[in-house]
User: What shape does this take?
Amino acid sequence: MKSGFICITGLANAGKSTLINSLVGEKVAIVSWRPQTTRNKILGIVNGTDESGEDYQVVFIDTPGIHSAKNHLGDYMMKSVEVGLKDVDGILYVVDTAKGLQKEDYEFIEKHADGKPLIVVLNKEDAVTKTTMLDVLQKLTAFPQIKAVVPASAKKGENLEPIMNELLALLPEGVQMFPEDMFTDSSMRFMAAEIIREKGLYLLDKEIPYGIGVYINKFEMREDKPIYEIDADIVVEKQSHKAIVIGKGGNTLKQIASAARKDLEEMTGEQVFLTLYVKAKPDWRNSDYLMRELGYDIKDLKK
Assistant: This one.
């Protein structure tokens, strides 16, 4: 069979997480309008059979959006991108076509075009005119090393098949690396934390900066009933942010819990009893200790 690793990368907010969820057909990465919401490398796994009848397994590595690091968490995220680009069979680079080719897009493509096979996805094609699309395509002719350029809409699920066909052409003959029914290597505890963080980012909108972390205190099935009990801390950087997350009469926190519970029950296939707490840990994004507590250990990236 064909099997291999593909790294999805691009600038912050280009739509990488939406694309990987669409390609995998399951939710493996959180989606938010905020840039830099993906903090860990996330594996998404796609199994199938190509047009010739040969089985394949594509293992996607979703990386944080490329940006200038401003704290220890930012350093961790950029290290995650660096590690994600190693030992892969190809790179899927996502461009926000609505913004056109940015200086950082040029720099990345120029740096990596002669290395691993590179496929460029011009995302958000549904949000641009033909003139804008043609302008971006014209600019990309400066990089003949690019294997393929595919306009697509990750949000609408348009042109996913051409992307997959281009990726399959890059895969070597190999073996099945993960079971067929497995769509991610992330643990349910990790996914639970990501789901809660996503709902927090969405419901808090612009009120809270990016300094939200989630720590799972308990994730276990009740002995007497098929109900998962999940206790988690939402960690913020400032004491003033704590009141915002809780909301008047606890209303905002209840909304976060309600929205998260729905996704958690879909993920586990069982009823979920979710309890959320809010804790302020000043400047945690610059604390190696607190980052490790929240699951961002740069030592893990060196393995």
User: Anything to note?
Assistant: The mean pLDDT is 81. Residues 251-268 form the longest helix (18 residues).
